[in-house]
Structure formats: C-alpha cells, structure tokens
Specification:
The structure is a homodimer. Chain A is of the alpha/beta class and about 325 residues long. The first copy, chain A, is about 40% helix and about 15% strand. In chain A, strands 2-1-3-4-5-11 form a six-stranded parallel β-sheet, sandwiched between helices. In chain A, strands 7-6-8-9-10-12 form a six-stranded mixed β-sheet, with helices on both faces. Chain A is elongated and about 85 Å long. The termini of chain A are far apart. Chains A and B meet through helix 4, helix 5, strand 2, helix 10 and helix 11 of A and helix 4, helix 5, strand 2, helix 10 and helix 11 of B. Chain A binds a DNA duplex (30 and 30 nucleotides) through helix 2 and helix 4.
DNA sequence: AACGTTGTATCTAACGTTGTAAAGAACCGG
DNA sequence: CCGGTTCTTTACAACGTTAGATACAACGTT
C-alpha cells in the first residue's frame, strides 16, 4: 500500500521529476500541472521515502540527543526543551539513552544510526577527550561540563558560580556547618568537581573552614544516594545545620533521610539542591535550588548545531554559557 | 572523511560485494580475504550508510515510541524500559513527544520520519478510532487504554481491577469518605473513566455510597492539578478521610495541598496514587500506589511489534494484559 | 520571420547498499 | 584427469529519490 513517486507520476500523467518538483516546491510548475500532481498525491496518500531522499541529499532531518538516563527528571525536562527547539528547525529528535557508561557513550557518540542523523547533542558522563577524537567530524554539541577543551561546540552553565551562590545563601542564613552531598572522584565527576569548588569558594568567603567530614560522596546522583549520604552525615561526628546537594534528586533523598531522623527542614537543617526539577516545587518542604535556564540551554545547543550544519563545519568550536538563577523555596528560604 | 564500501574494496583489493559480504557476516569468505577486508575497514574507520542499507532492505532498524510527555515520570520510566527491550532486538528507539494533542498525535502516528521507522509503539491520549484508520498498515502497538477495539495490537493493565483494589484498601483502613482525584469527561479520558469505574465498584462493595462531591476532576494529571483538586475538595462541604488519585503526580500534588492545609497523612487523610513512579518512594510521606509492571509492559509491546514485523502483518490484533501490584507505603499503609 | 529569453517538463545519472545470478577456483570420488 | 560438487568472488541491477542537463514551448523583441 506504499506508493512511490513513480506511481504518483503515472496517475497524474507527468514525469517522476515533475512530481519531485512539486513535492519540493520548485517554482516553475504550471498551476494546473501542480494541481493535478497534488491531487494524485492526495489520492494515493503518498509520502516520500526518507531513506531514499537522505541517500540522495546526504541529510536526514534527524538529530540525536544522547543522555545518560531518561528517567532522571533533569534530563527528561531538558529532552522536552530540545525536542521543542529542534521542531522549529524541522528536525526530529532521536533520543538515545546511554546509561552513562563509557562503552555505551562511545557507541552513542560514534554509532547511533550511522548516517541516519545529521548531528548530535550529547550530554556525556563518562566520556573522555580521547573518545571524542575518533568521531570523523560528526557535527556535535556537548552539554554540561567540558570534556575536552575546544574539540566540539559546548553549552554549559557556570557551575562554580552557581554552587558558590547557593552555598553563600546557606551561609547567609547563619549556618556554619554546611555539608555537601554528591562529591565524586572519578573522571566522570566533572560537574561534581566544579560544584565542590564553588561550595569551597563560598565557605572561604564566609570565613568557614572546609571540613572533610561534611563532604559526602555519592556514587550516582539518585534519590537513594542522597538519602544514604544524608544518613551517613547524620551518623558522623559533626551534625550539619545545612546541606548543599549537587543535584535535586540527591536533595529529595536527603529530605527523606532528614525526615526519617526526625529533623525539621529548614529549622534544624536547611537543604539546597541544583537543577530546579518539577518535583522540587511540590516536595515537602519545597526545595531551594539552582535553576539553570533549561529552555535556553536547549535552544543554544540546537542553534549551535544548526550553525554547524548550515555553515562552516571547521569553524573553531564555540562555548556558550547559559544563565541560571537561584530558586529559593521552603527548604532554605530567603529569611527564616 | 566518510568512506564507502567502494573505498574499502579498493584498499583491500576485492570487489564491493565481498566487502558487503564481510560486513554482513556471509559465511563463504576465505579467512585471509576476510582479514584483509577487516583491516581495511578498521583503517578507514568505515561505517555503513544506513540510509542506503535501509533503502535497499526496506528495514531501518528503528522503531518509534510516541508518548504524550517525556517529563511525566511514568512515561520517562516506561521509555527507559522500552529502549532496553528494543535493544535486545537490535533496534534503536526514536522517541517522539506528541504533547497529547490530537493534531500532533495524528502526525506522530502517520508521519514520523516516514519510511524511517519499521514500527511504532504508541501511547495515545487524544487519538480516536477514526484517526487510526488511515495509517496504511504501519505496524503499531498501542499502550494504555484501548482506542479502538481491535484495530491494532494492544498492551494494557486491568485499570478497573487495579483501581478497585487500591480503593478497597483505603476502605479496609476504615475510611468512609474516600475521595477521587483525576476524573475527566473528555473522550481522551479513557484511563480516567476506567479508574473511576474501579473506584465506584470498590465503594459499592464496601457499602459506601458514591458521593459526587468527593470526585474531583483534573484537566491534566500533573502535580499542580492534584494540588488544586485537593484544595478544592478541602474547601468543599465534605471533608474526605482518604483520597485515591488517578496517578502518582496528582497524588504528590495532593500531598502538598494537604501539608499546606495542616492535615496529617495518613492520620487525617490517607492518600493513594497510581503508577509507582520513583518519586513516590521518597516523598514525605512515601506513597501507596498501584504498581503496574512497566518492564513487562515494555517487553510485551516490543515483542508484539517484533512479531508483527517478522510474521504475519495481517494476523488479527492481540490484546495483552500486563500484571500490576499494590505498593503500600506510608501514605496509606497496611495497618495504621 | 528569425531571434534570444524565459518558463515548463523530461531524461539521465547518480547517492551507497545488497540480492541474484553467474563466473571462476578448488576440491572430491571414480 | 574428468565431471560434478562445493566454496569464493564478482558483475549487474535494483531500492526511491533528486541535481543537472536537456528538450520543448511560448513569449516578446528586433
């Protein structure tokens, strides 16, 4: 039941190329011819075979978005914005879930439906600079922390500044034993390091000494890790009076652990997160957090990719910084 | 920098077809020839052009998953399972976000990268039976409530039974003024209707009369809608002592509204949801809910689609029911 | 009336891959 | 060492589309 240009051409009594011209909006087609062709197209419910078109044109109209995990709210929200922004360019987005492992990420970066995608927006976790080297020029925009200095276009937010601001906010509430949850020593933990640096900087500015015992690592940044890390902190020698969690899901887990320990938030312990996911606006208490402009991030990434595709593929890579704000809610309000 | 079979063939000193044979694992290739070809492939970093392959083979290796919204946790979790299940069949999943509107859904169902996908797994909200009619046989599996009796393969859970069970649980706790949040009158509200029917059935079984005033509609099923509906119920004449929310995000919103009203959960009002999303395991309090077997749903859908693609495309449509359980947590525990 | 100019439609050759058929090489038993 | 298998490789023709060249009208100009 699938028809080809040829079928339409026969039905309309014209050549294949004429039908192609109509489909592609070529100007010099006589109105009555055009009408006849369009009617034939409608009657046969013709749709172009994109594989064939792509083969011919070298463009697919599909870009890929490679993310560590789809069911991490931050990535899901980001994905929505990317899909929306891409639609404005007439692109379909193929979403690829890498799982964050190095092997899968390498495969995603180089392999996703080879020649099936025009470009890639990629939020790597485990990928290193070396991995990026062998990608024979697939147009690519990286999200998040820089993996490699200037090998590809890049969209990020100022993690250090954001972490510093939210930590400073906690200090501004008079808290002195400010813990951090989410540190990572792995090379993948680029975000973790930047946010830790911002945390440390804010402590220094507030004349609070950095205390190892208040910095809790988290293997992944899920709710369960946040809860576990919080329990660990509570069982340690120094009872924190505030916690900066390196993302919101960690913070939600921490809230849970604090609740189970019978501590009040923010009275006993103030809590802050990072990402501004939807959950944090309805959690009990609602979550103070860093709010990156996700829509902006998505749009910048898509536009950057568009520029690469339309223009000079060998132009020097660009790095864009998207804005962020503090969203102050109940878990660490403006005034207590 | 992109190479073709021809380039590999020249470098290895063989014909194009021999390279193709090696790439496709054809048996009768002499070991040394194979080795030579493989080396050439490695040296040139050759990757097949999938558009060309698809054009030739008529198969793309890509299936689409069309969902209303990616940042609804239930769909995000489902998407992850579908991607995993599809990977076992060697498929890539193109995730399409329809937004749930009729126009976009129609487009998604008929249009996504035409000829770019082998089949479609589709979770429709607004689509009607008529819309499904004009899809010239794109292999498709529907998720969720049946749109049309037997026009396409279908995977669902027993919504009526599940809603009845969780409502019965609330009644079993001794609650008598059990409210429902999430009713919808639109044709899209198929799930809403089934869950409402289950709710009503459970009330009848428990000899509780159905009270209009305890049934709150929700235009969408987001957290904000749940909170608004809960506030509305609390301001009404009848103060509920339990609430069954038609999904978990509604329930999380309801928890928030109850908290703001100073009511304790579950002591004053027990709360139950539907979907068993990750959030509900860490919310305060944790959420009692219906837990559909999402992994099973995804696997059944993918397998059903695989059957369609490999086998008889005109076989009568099948409807499969995936299991569900009750996950009883703090918001409506087993015993109070 | 012959001319270029423009508008309209067609013809041919790709794009990179794989299925088919067939050719050539190597091997077997007699 | 012949005839027949089996193994190995190749040539050719598609798959459905579009770019480019080309043919043919129709037009206004000289």
């Amino acid at each position: 039941m699938r028809h080809r240009l040829k079928d339409v051409a026969e039905r309309a009594g014209v050549s294949v190329k004429t039908v192609s011209n109509v489909v592609n909006g070529y100007l010099h087609v006589r109105p009555d011819t055009r009408a006849r062709v369009e009617q034939a197209i409608a009657e046969l419910n013709y749709r172009p075979n994109l594989s064939a078109r792509n083969l011919r044109k070298g463009r697919t109209g599909v870009i890929a978005l490679a993310l560590p995990e789809l069911d991490i709210p931050y990535f899901a929200e980001l994905a929505r914005h990317v899909v929306t922004a891409a639609a404005e360019h007439g692109w379909t987005v193929l979403i690829d879930q890498t799982g964050g492992g190095p092997e899968q990420e390498r495969k995603a970066a180089s392999g996703i439906g080879d020649h099936m995608i025009d470009g890639l927006i990629f939020s790597p976790l485990a990928l290193t600079a070396d991995d990026l080297a062998g990608l024979d020029g697939m147009p690519m925009v990286l999200l998040g922390e820089r993996v490699d200095h200037g090998r590809a276009d890049h969209v990020m937010i100022d993690n250090v500044a954001a972490a510093r601001q939210i930590t400073a906010h906690l200090a501004g509430l008079g808290r002195r034993r400010i813990a951090a949850i989410g540190s990572q020593r792995t090379p993948e933990g680029a975000s973790a390091r930047l946010r830790l640096a911002g945390y440390a900087a804010a402590l220094a500015e507030a004349d609070i000494s950095y205390d190892e015992r208040l910095v809790a690592p988290a293997p992944a940044w899920h709710r369960a890790d946040g809860a576990a890390a919080m329990r660990h902190l509570l069982s340690g020698g120094v009872r924190p009076d505030a916690v900066f969690c390196f993302n919101d899901t960690l913070a939600l887990g921490a809230l849970r652990a604090l609740h189970e320990a019978g501590l009040r938030v923010p009275e006993d312990v103030a809590v802050a997160g990072f990402d501004d996911i939807e959950d944090g606006r309805f959690s009990i208490p609602t979550l103070s957090t860093v709010a990156p402009d996700k829509e902006r991030i998505a749009r910048l990434a898509v536009d950057l990719l568009a520029g690469r595709l339309d223009g000079d593929r060998d132009a020097p890579p660009r790095e864009l910084v998207a804005p962020h704000q503090l969203a102050l809610r109940e878990s660490a309000p403006d005034l207590i």
